[in-house]
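Hey, weird one. I pasted the Peptidoglycan D,D-transpeptidase MrdA sequence into the form twice and got a warning about non-standard characters only the second time. First submission, copied straight from the form history:
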Amino acid sequence: MTELRNVQADLSRFRARVLVASLAVLVCFLLLAARLVWLQVIKHDELDEQAEANRTAIVPVVPNRGLILDRNGIVLATNYSAYTLEITPPRLAAGLDDTIDELARIVEIQPRDRRRFKKLLEESKGFESLPIRTKLSDEEVARFAAQRFRFPGVDIKARLFRNYPWGELASHVIGYIGRINQAEKKQMEDWPEEDQGNYRGTEYIGKLGVEQSLEKQLHGTTGVEQVETSAGGRAVRKLDSKPATPGDTVMLSIDIKLQKLVEDMYGDRRGALVALDPKSGEVLAFVSKPTFDPNLFVDGIDAENWQALNESIEKPLLNRALRGTYPPGSTYKPFMALAALETRKRSATQVIYDSGTWSYGGHVFRSHGDHGLGAVDMHTSIVKSSNVYYYQLANDMGVDAMHDFMKPLGFGQFTGIDIFGEVRGVLPSQEWKRNYYRRPEQKKWFGGETISLGIGQGYNSFTMLQLAQATATLANNGVKHKPRLVIATQDPMTRDIRPVPAKPPENLGFKPENVAVIRKAMVGVTQGGTSARVFAGAGYLSGGKTGTAQAVTIGQREKYNASKLEEHQRDHALYIAFAPADDPKIAVAAIVENAGFGAASAAPITRRVFDYWLMGQYPSEEDLAAVRKGQAANPVGKPRNAAEVAWPPGAAAAAAAAVAPSLPASAPQAALPVRAAPTRVSLPAR
């Protein structure tokens, strides 16, 4: 029997299916329309911005770092460009070590390059481009370019390098730059957003000296470039740009030729010398020996050189002028004498008897050689350097009175010089001892501790910068200037020179007649006293004071014998001085570590400094050799005309040329020379 279909039911089911399908299609179209509205209308601006970002890239333009000059326009720090071979580890197709091995077949990669790279890799965030080789030659660049397709993640980049053309000369003053480490990056996170933005793309920052202290002025302002990129991320064309502004040129007060003379006279000996203009506080020479080569740090110092510098018993990285603290020895006596006059503890004519020893509480305090000077007034106490006179004076004044007088002179205080890292030293007082020591029995001040303070020993511990400032203040009749190294900056774009104003001086209010007594006695030191042989025949009159400071304590019953002590245990030689005596234009504090008597080692160096600054004289080669060995008093040989002594020095000039033979320096600085390692920059007379 044939089954009849229900046409009406089939038609109803068909219509239902069509309706469902139509609704499904309609929903799909509505969803597509909604999505279209969402993307094209609501999210249009955001997506357009993302598309533009994919098409373009914002690239920071690192500014040229500013130059550093001495007071005569001689360039102390400059820039040059060179090619570097850099690796971005996450983009490597092969292993890092394998890639480096393959690269070494094309360009020379030494073991120290590998070690430096590994150190940088440890300090980086992992996705940075890091140099494996710097300062590639043109031939090396060409060889790698031909093989570049084999090394994804490896590129040649042109970078600007810092150059210190005179090597170790004045390295503690100038400082150096180095790669920004993780600790510094952490500190930068607390900087204002604007300052952080100025360091985008920057890998280097000042680490020491003027490079660190004047970082903001030297760094400049970072620019930006907007470039169109291909799908592979390569730049196609530049769309827009804001140029970088080079850093300011910074002019220092030091005379680099004088600086070199002093460093040459120290030779291989350790010590420090600070020379100031007493009328302005300008630093004329700022010497710390031994020195170091700041060029070692520019690319990232290798492990061997770092170990040699950091672990050396000579401590070449220590800025002895700024951070080395020493007992001042007998150079303290003129200030003690002035304190006695100002506090009325002594008159200039009062006489005491110097028997060669002085006893307190059963302890015998000696003079050098235990030789007494007999009847001694204040003038003689300075000229002949009586210890007994100042033992007794210290006992009469007491530690707190000495502290209160010496503090305004700057002893044991920050001078406020315009570079970082200064230390305070120790100007003792009863309060200082209570705060310094922990155990109750150590906090008490004993009367016997006061006695040795009078001759610059005991707890006294000052920097050469503090001693130089105090000497300059005395030479300037009690008017104290803050020491300063930076005297001017120059805008690289406008070429305008902006003098850096000095801080207002402070008049300490000493009585002129009291200062005159001390200055006259210090002149007596150079005429008939402990440094008379050194200054015999000088074309000017100067005032000075020799000093010998203990490096180690000698027992009460023992006598000092240098030959029985290790070299590092022998006494330090010190000298302070000013000249000309009637109108001082220069004041000096110098120390030669472990060199014995000040008249034998420190005073001869000061004599040549004065001859250079006041007479325009440069020591003969014979005289320089004798001074280096501590075997010269009065100059030997015929002095040379300082203006005729060749500059740049031959060895330093050759080293500078070897570092950057013909590479351009900071080109945007139109007012300045554009050759690498320029010798001198002409600036308007001050």
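That's the output from the first submission. The warning seems to come from a hidden character in my clipboard, not from the data itself. Residues 14-56 form one domain.
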